[in-house]
Amino acid sequence: MNDRVTPAMHALPDGEAELTLVVRLPWEDVARLGQEAGRLASQMRRPVTLEEAVSHRLRSSRAAAHAKPAGEQPPAVTASASVSSLPARPPAEQARQAIDRINGTVGTA
Question: Is residue 18 within 8 Å of 10, Cβ to Cβ?
Fold first, then answer.
């Protein structure tokens, strides 16, 4: 098996595991992760990476799913559910707007 395809996994001293992988995301999802990182950084009062934001989101989603009553199933999440519906735009325009949102420069140009 090709090592490039096989994700690297490392056991951490705190009992967790670290998994390295590559994910291809639309720019809109990257912008949402940037917003999540900003919210998390405000709460923690320190800089937060996108990786931390993803880990936090996954942990909080898992905790919320476990907190549901036994008969209640969590709703299925799709990639489009996490991104606001926007009119179709060229990819370059989508990327520029997503980067502007991450940088907080929307409407300043």
Answer: yes
Residue 63 in tokens: 């905790």
Report the C-alpha gap between 17 and 76 in whole angstroms.
25
Residue 47 tokens, joined: 């800089």
Could you tell me the CA-to-CA distances from 63 to 52, 60, 67, 81, 101 in Å, in that order? 16, 5, 6, 19, 29
List strand residue ranges (DSSP E) for the chain, in order.
Answer: 8-11, 17-20
What is the tens place of the pLDDT at every residue in 48-90? 998 888 888 888 877 676 665 555 555 544 444 444 555 566 7
Q: How many CB atoms lie within 10 A of CB 33?
A: 19
- Whether residue 52 contacts residue 37, with contact meaning beta carbons closer than 8 Å, is answered with yes
For residues 94 and 27, is the Cβ–Cβ distance under 8 A? yes
